[in-house]
Amino acid sequence: MKPLYQHTFTNRGTSAVEAVVYVAIFSLIMLALLNFAYYSFKKQSYSTAVYDASFSARKALSELLSDIRSASYSDNGAYPIERFEGYEFIFYSDTDKDGKIEKIRYFLDGTTLKKQIFKSSGIPPIYLNTPDKESAVASYVQNQRFSETLFEYLDKYGNKITNPNDLLKIVTVNIKIITDKNPNRAPDKYNFEASASIRNLIEDYAK
Q: How many CA atoms lie within 13 A of 49 on its CB side?
């Protein structure tokens, strides 16, 4: 006697065509995930590069502005500005706010903007040639690569000064920092600019 209901189950293996389709779908999914991860990482790297370069330049500008605005006659009576060039600026200022005037040298060393501090000593006061402190105030500086000076010097009328004999006419310093953490990759360069007037020299002109 035959059963009223009989279910026949056939255990059929995966065909070659189905296997190819599964592999193709899996490969597309993995490719999409890899692309997403790559672009996410690239975006994060881009944001980090911009932040690093921007933070470094803004911090340097803030320090430069404070020092330059407070430039004054040295402890031995020397003029507030000792030397001025496109990538180097040497002047006197109370950078650590201790009541004594330090000689300060800002200069570009490769792609690093550095600061040297020379303290006075002795009676009468003198400044030795060896700095008491040297520090990096900005990294990834690309001014030389783009043939752009760091410092520009102006007289009280806004005229640009380049002649060393006109040192006494300087009252304002324009600062331009060009940054690019990796010139061979995005992001492109960024410019950070500021202007600092030397208070003591402006007051001298006003007398």
A: 20
